[in-house]
Amino acid sequence: MSKSNVKNTGKKNDPANELLENPEAIASRLNRGEHFLKENAKFVAGAIGAVIVIIAAVLYFQFHKANQNITAQAEMFQAVYYFEQDSVDLALQGDGVNPGFLTILDKYSGTEAANLAHYYVGSIYLSQSEFQLAADHLKQFSSDDFFIQAQAYALTGDAYMDLGNPQEAIKYYKRAVDHESNKFFTPKYLSKLAIAYEEAGELKNAIEAYETIEEKYLDSYEFTNARKHKARLQGLASN
């Protein structure tokens, strides 16, 4: 076999090996890098400066937001007290000295305090039969607390039921049911879901919701009613 047909398996043409074995190649690369920096010094300095400005802005925003949240929580204390005392108008609007939840929402938008205020405001509007406003605020609330978040979903479902929109209510009741299911609250949400299904004419799904209570939540307050309404719906479905 001729040498010309033998494949060259050496590494002489490998650029990485060339750099390692040839100091002049390394020096050439370094010189090109140095030349680039000299020619583009203003651009490089500007890019670095822009990165520094962005980092500083992010840190300032986080610090400012944290301080705003602390202030908002302190100012919201009286509104929470009024809410717990069922003085919902004072909780919502304030008392002339202490701000209400609506002021907290306007003044401290984006803070955790404002997020919590959406829950309180939505609950108040629901009690005042302002169902669309209630739904709008409750949908903006989010929490890592499984009980509060599931309750917010259920209240949103209540608002849509009162608005005559059972399909939208079903969506939020299902979220309440599926959010960290537990024996204390899930049976109540399942009952609400079953009622919404019946209102929407979905009898099969309503029966299945009641069956879930029967099968999984035997000790719940809702168990007896679930059996009764399941039998009633089965009778309707068979007609």
Salient structural properties:
disordered N terminus, 75% helix, Serine Threonine Protein Phosphatase 5, Tetratricopeptide repeat, 239 residues
Overview of the molecule:
The longest helix has 44 residues, at 41-84. This protein has 239 residues and is mostly helical. The protein is flat. Helix 1 packs across helix 2 (23-39). The protein is 75% helix and 0% strand. The model is unreliable at 1-11 and 56-61 (pLDDT under 50). The protein has 2 domains: 60-142, no CATH class; 143-239, Tetratricopeptide repeat domain (Serine Threonine Protein Phosphatase 5, Tetratricopeptide repeat), CATH 1.25.40. It has helices at 15-21, 23-39, 41-84, 88-93, 101-107, 112-127, 131-138, 146-162, 166-178, 186-199, 203-216, 223-238.
Query: What is the CATH topology of the largest domain?
Result: Serine Threonine Protein Phosphatase 5, Tetratricopeptide repeat
Rg for CA atoms: 32 Å
Structural class designation:
mainly alpha
Looking at the chains present, what oligomeric state does this protein adopt?
A: single chain
Helix content: over 70%
Topology:
Blueprint: H1 15-21, H2 23-39, H3 41-84, H4 88-93, H5 101-107, H6 112-127, H7 131-138, H8 146-162, H9 166-178, H10 186-199, H11 203-216, H12 223-238
Helix pairs in contact: 1-2, 3-6, 5-6, 6-7, 6-8, 7-8, 8-9, 9-10, 10-11, 11-12
